[in-house]
Amino acid sequence: MDLVDVFKKKKIGDKVEIEGWIRNNRDQKEFGFIDFSDGTCFNSLQLVYDNKLSNFDEVCHYHVGSSIIARGKLVKSNGKQAMELKIEEIELVGDAPADYPIQAKRHTMEFLRSVSYMRGRTRTFQAVFRVRSVAAFAIHDYFQKNNYLYAMTPLITGTDCEGSNQMFKVSTFDFNDIPVDKDGKVDFSKDLFSKQVYITGSGQLHGEAMAMSFKKIYTFGPTFRTENSNTKVHANEFWMIEPEIAFCDLNGLMDIEEDMLKYVVSYVLEHCSDEINFFDSFVEKGLREKLEKLVKSEFVRITHKEAIDLLKKSKKKFEFEPSYDEDLAKEHEKYITEHFNGPVFIKDWPKDIKAWYMKVNEDGKTCAAVDLEVPGAGEIMGGSEREIDLKVLDKRIKEKNVKKESIEWFLNLRRFGGCYHSGFGLGFERLLMYLTGMENIRDVIPFPRTPGNCDY
Amino acid sequence: MDLVDVFKKKKIGDKVEIEGWIRNNRDQKEFGFIDFSDGTCFNSLQLVYDNKLSNFDEVCHYHVGSSIIARGKLVKSNGKQAMELKIEEIELVGDAPADYPIQAKRHTMEFLRSVSYMRGRTRTFQAVFRVRSVAAFAIHDYFQKNNYLYAMTPLITGTDCEGSNQMFKVSTFDFNDIPVDKDGKVDFSKDLFSKQVYITGSGQLHGEAMAMSFKKIYTFGPTFRTENSNTKVHANEFWMIEPEIAFCDLNGLMDIEEDMLKYVVSYVLEHCSDEINFFDSFVEKGLREKLEKLVKSEFVRITHKEAIDLLKKSKKKFEFEPSYDEDLAKEHEKYITEHFNGPVFIKDWPKDIKAWYMKVNEDGKTCAAVDLEVPGAGEIMGGSEREIDLKVLDKRIKEKNVKKESIEWFLNLRRFGGCYHSGFGLGFERLLMYLTGMENIRDVIPFPRTPGNCDY
Q1: Residues contacting A164, CB < 8 A, separation 6+
Q2: What's residue A78's pLDDT?
Q3: B206 touching A, CB under 8 A?
């Protein structure tokens, strides 16, 4: 049975059969202890064996990392756990020879990335990827409970949302033998979709279409950017959640963002308590308190102008001078969340530094965009009310060099029963880094894709 | 408020404000009726207005497809629904001029595909995409309740699972200016990942790695095949669920497949009752009975050999002669599910027609693969116990021309604490066609991708 069910459903005196892996094996003359885990929960179980076993000598030599099946009776333990398993029968399923890379010692994150396909067997990654799974479910749960439709928007696309220079090209061509037309240019009519296509950097435009049919929708899927950045926060493949809500303005959007984030954090605190305690002890001191505080706090709402006023008034010496026309630097975000001692929505940004689809405010200078800044992580979500005025859109598209022919269909959504609506994007890995305290995006994705790295 | 909540939480006499779209507007001299929907549930609400409204004349001319906000009081209805809304105030948010493509009449599926970004506003696609969303949640719910980890396996990959000739190539190169080496061959070292990469046709190999850490995992995400097939059941982008379970043999796998499918079907029957009734009336007569029967049935388990025996003994004239060495044709599947009058697992297939990663049985001729055939849809899931003997794997890889260097890491899973394990793949769209009775895969995907079609 699954170890998580042993802990949940079984009691001292019960007999159980379990299958899993050896974390550690310490044998003494007449008995030994195996630290056993099967990956279905964070905690491991101690297995106790003694020389009454017919295969005692063999068991003493089971290697770390080996898979086993064990049968026995749960008995009271004097260790950390309330119970341990007194082994009656144990058999080896798969050996892990001595060159098994993940031994019972401390490994660096860098080393573990080099064996990413096995690092899930360490305690740290047991905790990280379980939080990942539970948080993903919490997100689905939140939206489904609140009448949202899960919209699976396409990944292969000819539509230009964030700029096609940031999108991977997708093709069935043999790159050593690309068909060309009579002018020597690539003949995309010969490719599978009869034109050049990409893998998307955002499901937003398709999400908007779905919101115009289902009122409240969310996407949750993989997303791609070609950025050649080797930082701790960039990956070329990551997961995004992009809700889109018809008949919702910027204030309504902030209500939803706050409500959703609190729901997901509460859910993880409740369902991953052991994992959060582990991170709190070994990865980010104070993590639990940070998360519990977020759930209880009321998020502040200020404009970009008010944020800059605040930074200027602070008299603090910043590396980057705060400006009414520019984005906030990390140091600014930090100052603001510390000043308010909690999460802060910053809204009404200078339109020139924001995307073409964001609604231009009446002042003609700012747009109805909002970023949520949280203590310790900075920007965690970005959203906006969407521009629905076709004339304004036309101008913005030109300013931002968007290929209009690729979004004609999208513009039709404004012509036929359009309505004010808003949406936001939440980078799932950014949320996970916030939830776990892990500092590198490579360590919250099972198989990270970064420039030069696609080995597994 | 959302219309679904009006139906669930409000009663006659309550005042409500709703936002949504006009499905139909029939005005008479002194009053009129709007068929109103907001996309949060299948049923629409009738809005009744009369000439006491200050904007009565205007309201009479609201077009089909327009978005509106309406306030009023719920009153008893003599129509199909128990309630209707007596309008006190109504305002137009977004007009839908007379060239709005989706008028209140019957449209062909072909036509609706040509405006796929708006077809969600029809009753059929309201039903289809809500079932899609609810079924997706049911799948997550099933696996999370049963201790599975949601494993988000990578889409960009250099690993060859199903054969790289079926995978799309992914690149950051400008196709008109691809860098070449001194021999004139494409220089992939200059691409973002420093080698040629693909978007995956299966998360299985990475899923197996995760199962070796977490025992029970499932993937659920988009998948790609380059097949140039214009059939009703092929799309180039579709969603797959790929569970993988350590310490699980073929019988255990069939237990899981059966249990999961029944759970998902029950969940949809319970949560999409209106949608199922609609499909039952207008798309596939007898659909509800078919689904209810599946939930109650016990799935039969036979071998491929037994299936062929049965077909041969039937004396029926098949277009394709049944053969012990070959796959089953659609007509064979149909005969078998009709013979048993319910779902049938067919296991132990000739190894030569199955994938390299499936466990070869002791007879050396068959492999521990299993397909689930259901009445009316044929094969709906395919799975196997996985080969873990490295010598056998080596031979199979050679036979099937798999690039060994791309899966060296995967083979390591057998060297370090490997164990018997099994997994299956469920094509999400195939499940949806079964659940809704829709006959074309293009009509269960919001934005389908098929050869030559990537317009939106």
Answers
A1: A198, A403
A2: 83
A3: yes
Strand residues in B38-133 grouped as ranges (E): 45-50, 67-76, 83-94
Note whether B117 contacts A410, CB cutoff 8 Å: yes
Cβ pair B136:A152 closer than 8 A: yes
What's the whole-number mean pLDDT along residues A358-375? Answer: 96
User: Could A224 and B415 be called an inter-chain contact, meaning their C-beta atoms sit closer than 8 Å?
Assistant: no
Instruction: Count CB pairs under 8 A between chains A and B.
Output: 334
Closest CB from A118, A151, A178 relative to B175: A178
Residues of B in contact with A65 (CB under 8 A): 416-417
Q: What is the chain A residue with the closest CA to B133?
A: A150
Judged against a pLDDT cut of 80, whether residue A435 lies above it is answered with yes
- What would the 3-class secondary structure string for chain A be? CCHHHHHHHCCCCCEEEEEEEEEEEEECCCEEEEEEECCCCCCCEEEEEECCCCCHHHHHCCCCCCEEEEEEEEEECCCCCCEEEEEEEEEEEECCCCCCCCCCCCCCHHHHHHCCCCHHHCHHHHHHHHHHHHHHHHHHHHHHHCCCEECCCCCEECCCCCCHHHCEEEECCCCCCCCECCCCCECHHHCCCCCCEEECCCCHHHHHHHHHHHCEEEEEEEEECCCCCCCCCCCCEEEEEEEEEECCCHHHHHHHHHHHHHHHHHHHHHHCHHHHHHHHHHCCCCHHHHHHHHHHCCCEEEEHHHHHHHHHHCCCCCCCCCCCCCCCCHHHHHHHHHHHCCCEEEEEEEHHHCCCCECECCCCCEEEEEEEEECCCEEEEEEEEECCCHHHHHHHHHHCCCCHHHHHHHHHHHHCCCCCEEEEEEEHHHHHHHHHCCCCHHHCCCCCCECCECCC
* pLDDT band (50, 70, 90) for residue A359: very high
Of A176 and B161, the structure prediction assigns the larger pLDDT to A176
Q: Does B178 touch chain A (CB under 8 A)?
A: yes
Q: How far is A150 from chain B (nearest CA, A)?
A: 5
Report the residue from B150, B153, B417 with minimal CB separation from A133. Answer: B150
Kindly determine whether residue A412 and residue B136, on different chains, have CB atoms separated by under 8 Å: no
Contact list, A248 vs chain B (CB under 8 Å) = none
Flag whether residue A61 sits within 8 Å of chain B, measured between CB atoms: no
Average pLDDT by consecutive 10-residue portion of chain B (456 residues)? 97 98 94 97 97 96 97 91 95 96 92 96 97 98 98 91 80 94 95 94 94 98 94 95 98 98 98 98 97 96 98 94 96 95 96 95 97 90 97 93 90 97 97 96 97 93
In three-state secondary structure terms, B186 is strand
pLDDT tens readout for residues A266-301: 999 999 999 999 999 999 999 999 999 999 999 999
Name residues 313-372 of chain B within 8 A of A (Cβ).
Answer: none
User: Residue A214 CA to chain centroid, in angstroms?
Assistant: 25
Beta bridge partners of A238: A223
The 10s digit of each residue's pLDDT in A188-239 is 999 999 999 999 889 999 999 999 999 999 999 999 999 999 999 999 999 9
> What is the rounded CA–CA span in Å between residue B399 and residue B417?
26
User: What is the per-residue pLDDT for B148?
Assistant: 98
Given this model, what pLDDT does residue A374 score? 92
CB-based burial, A116-154: b 16+ in 10 Å, e otherwise? bbbbbbbebbbbbbbbbbbbbbbbbbbbbebbbbbbbbb
Residues 209-238 of A with CB under 8 A from B: 209-210, 212-216, 221-222, 224, 226, 228, 236-237
CA-based nearest residue in chain A for residue B191: A452
Which of B 289-308 lie inside 8 A of A, CB atoms?
none
